[in-house]
Amino acid sequence: MFVRHTTIRRGTVRSASIGIAALAFALAACSSGQGSTSTVDTVTPPPVSGGFVAPRTVPEGMGSGQSDGEFPRTVVHFAGETVIGAQPERVVVISTGQADALLSLGVVPAASTRGDGADLIPRYLIDAYPQYATELAAVVDAGGRFEPNFEAIANLQPDLILMNTAGKDADAMYSRLSAIAPTVATQGTGMYWKQDFLLAADALGRFDQASAMLDEFNSDATELGETLESVPTVSFTRMNGDRMRVFGVPSFTGSIAQDAGLARPESQEFDETSRDISAEELTLADADRIFYGVQGGDASALTGAPLWSGLQAVQAGRAVQVDDDVFYLNTGPTAARQVLDVLEDTLQQG
Prior knowledge:
Oligomer: single chain
Strand order of the largest sheet: 7-6-5-8-9
Number of strands: 14
CATH architecture of the largest domain: 3-Layer(aba) Sandwich
Structural class: alpha/beta
Helix content: 25-40%
Order of helices and strands: EHEEEEHEHHEHEHEHHEEHEEHHEHH
């Protein structure tokens, strides 16, 4: 299969305060300016649902424009710009998916925060990286994602902190964290996982390494869609506690389905990450294939719902319970690869 690759130039610095509407265009386009070059797959999937396409590059003007391994480097990001003097060795991750991003690049975080009801290091990462078992067992608990333990972080004397700006007072958090160590802020939320991975990788001096990984992922996702005899509709559904949701195109799993050219049921072609549904609205989760996750793993509250057994996918035996951490809680390249593997294994069964 032929996949076009284009050389992307990174460089020219401009304001990191970019509106969401402007990002939708800028992120899908090539950055321009001075600096080193790196190959990034710029073949984008067709826009779905109001024209949304998950970005595959860093926003124009962000990043460092420097070669891998070159320090000091100045990284422009979503909270400003940060000078990183040397190759980071003690990295603290604050936000969802950043431990995944580091491990995908061969870096073990010194400390990590945890989400509500989530493990410090998700099981799927421990299983995926057994070579780092000792180091992962020693990762310091840095508190909650929205209320990190600043004292514990400072005691580690980190040389890089990664955070994102989603769902928090980002200015206040960035101010406190950057007083401890050089801090780089990504955008956050699952739809932006590729650009955030590239920006975090840039801070580590590994942008080109991350770009090559995404090139391969994008190519494999495209190839999956091309190998299917027919294009099924796929539904992404999650239940945590009493909350039931379906996920739209601008979501982590939605973006991966888009990469593979998979169709979504009309009920999930909306321009939001997710929508809450009631038990009486469970038919909105129906499709040719349903991939459902339940926090804690006990699916009985969902599968025992009165309307569940009447769903088309359930009656056809095509409703698949998936790892909730992988599909719905984490947004890094290792999780993305596992999502793609599950889609491939399931959809190629016919």
